[in-house]
Amino acid sequence: MHAGAIVLQTVLLVALAPLWNGVVARIKARLQMRRGSPVLQRYRDLLKLAGKETVLSEHASPLARVTPYLMLGAAVTLCTWTPVLTTRPGLAFAGDLVMTVALLAAMRVLLALLALEAGTTFGGMSASRHLALSALAEPALMMAIFTLALNAHSTDLARIAAAVEAAPAAWISPSHLLALTAVWIVVVSETGRVPVDNPVTHLELTMIHEGMTLDVSGHHLALLEWAGAVRQLVLLTLVANLFLPWGIADTLEPAALGLALLAWLGKLLLFAVVVALTESLTAKMRLFRVPEFLGMAFLLALIALTSDTLTRG
Amino acid sequence: MNLLFPDWLPRSNTVNLLAGAFLLSALYAAAQRRLLAAITAYQWNSVALGLIAAVVAVVTGARHIALAALLVFAIKAVVIPAVLRRQAMRGGGDTVAEPFMGVPAGMLACGGLVVLAFSQTRALFGAGSSILASCLPVSVATTLVGLFIMVSRRRALMQVVGLVIVENAIFLAAVSLTYGMPLVVEMGVLLDLLVGVALLGLFVGRIEETLGDTDTTRLTSLKG
Q: What is the pTM of this model?
């Protein structure tokens, strides 16, 4: 993959990340018979935050100062090797499936450290919940994608996408759907959405992801929110292009890329509708039920992996 | 032992994905504490089954399978869930009864059963190239999951849900092995099932009236 294509997809992911949240909020508002805020509202929020004063405790460690930048940096790095428009292997030497999961984990640890750093109770509580859920979600994510990686004989994300897309009729087995379900549960949990977490909650006791940024302000908060949005879009793109890769381009020709762009946006819109519907139709789960929910994701991924190897042999 | 089965229908993505949905809905039913949610899962299970039968009907062009698919939709996806729901609402509504085994442990057991089913089916029949390759292991796995629902639940109606899921799985095996039995047999089986579910509903109603509860562990107290 040419450098141009890598830059293009990184810019696309980073620029469109807040938009997806705006679209979900808009669809949700429509479902609730409200007009809702414009889809570009998230960008305005980020701009407003960036213009505000950043309050840092005089006891804040250097970690608290650099974490927001590190978070966005990690998120942007993820964007460079995630297959977005094309399956041409690009930065495969730099990052593959394992590296992606590792970077996601690094972001999680950074965020938890930032929450603990402030020393407030809500931050610590949210950080502990966040890490507990992540410990359950991460193996499920790895197992689910490994189901595909085993068949593609590679952990390179672009190669996996290419293998699934080029698959003959006999290739997609029942385990594909199980793995997709597992990965979707993980994405819902990782992006802090209903039924695991509520992204619009203002009740500190129920917060998971929002609780960790309570003490962050100004452009630090803007950076964190943007990094969170980019991370979310990367996860959604992984689901779209690894599990449902149809429409992705094999070449770097402009026509194929344009088509791939439309397919990608279509899939993201579909996900937005699904998430908005789930958030409108289901209630948030009790925290103690969430491990069960994530355990189910892990189990589905495990079944997918074993049944896949067994039927293929 | 190498059994010979008609190997007409090549594996197809549609059937494979539908088989996945079939297994997934059975597992979803096994993970439920609430009766109504389990009945909805059974409904999805039946819809997936009907769609598989419809695909087989379209590909083979056999009219009796198309009719059987329609009957599956009508009876398994509409009538039986409605009967079960009515019974559930009458018997204390959507009350929660903890299964004998906690849900996480139960899910682990189901996972083990699915893996067992997949490995043993492969050991018996080898890796086929027809739709059997996906449908047969899924149907064996779903049979085991349905049986597990039956033995692990306290509420009588939940055990009925397990039973009808087992029946769905056997129907799937029949459709993918033989590409449909004669229509008379299918109709007879579906009618039997309907009568069976109605009778079981009546029995559950009687248990409810006599004991004020459908917790089957309390049935032993009749002895004393």
A: 0.85
